[in-house]
Amino acid sequence: MAAEAIRFALSYEALTQWCQRQGYQFTENAELKQLAVHYQLLAQPAPLMILPQPERDMVMFVMRQPYTVPPERRTALIDAVALLNASSFMGAWVQNRRTGELYFRATLPVGDIQYTDAGVLMVARVVVGTSERAAPALRTIALGGGDPAESLAGLVS
User: Fold this and answer.
1) What is the pLDDT of residues 30-71, one digit of tens each?
2) I need a labelling partner for 84 at 20 to 30 A (CA). Which of 1, 105, 113, 140 fits?
3) 8-state DSSP, 66
C-alpha cells in the first residue's frame, strides 16, 4: 500500500520544502518570502515564480514571458490575451500595459486548505505548460507583428 500523502498549508516555508522535495533548483527571497524555480522559456531564463500573498490568503504561481512587449504591440497582445483566456480552464494571461510584461498566473487559496506535493505540482505544471504552449505564438504577436487570431489559431477554440 502506498504511503499517505503529506498534507500542508501553502506557507513560504512549506513551499520551500516542496521545492526541495521536488529536487528543483530555485532561488529564495527570504525578505519578501518569494521563490523562483529556475526554468527556461524560448531558450531564455523564465523562472516559475511562487509568490505567497499572506494578506490575501493566496499564493500565485507566475511565469513571465522572457521579453517585454513593445508599446506599439500592446494592443495586439490585449486581443491575444483575451483569446487565450476565453479557452483557459485554470489561470489567466495578464499583460501589464505600462511595463509591457506578459505572464500567465494561477492563484490558489491558502486559508485552512491543505495541499499535497502532487496537488502543488499540478498547478506548477499548468502554469509552465500553458506558458510553453503559447510562447512561440505570443512572441510572434509581440515581436514579429503577427495577427493575434491567426497566430493563436491552433491554440484557441
Assistant:
1) 999 999 999 999 999 999 999 999 889 999 999 999 999 999
2) 113
3) S
Q: Where are the beta strands (DSSP E) in 81-126?
A: 92-95, 102-109
Give the position of cell 511562487. Answer: 50
Question: Which value, to the nearest 10 degrees, does the dihedral of the CA atoms of residues 84, 88, 92, 97 take?
Answer: 10
List phi, psi (to 5°) of 36: -130, 110
The CATH fold of domain 12-66+89-132: Yope Regulator; Chain: A, (3.30.1460)
The full set of domain ranges for the chain reads: 12-66+89-132
Find, among 106, 113, 109, the residue nearest to 7 by Cα. Answer: 113
Q: How far apart are the C-alpha atoms of 140 and 20, rounded to whole Å?
A: 35
Q: Of 4, 149, 11, give the one whose Cα is nearest residue 86.
A: 149
Q: Residue 43 in 3-state DSSP? A: coil
Tell me the C-alpha distance between 25 and 22, whole Å: 9
Burial of residue 153, with CB atoms counted within 10 A of its CB: 0-12 exposed, 13-18 middle, 19 or more buried: exposed
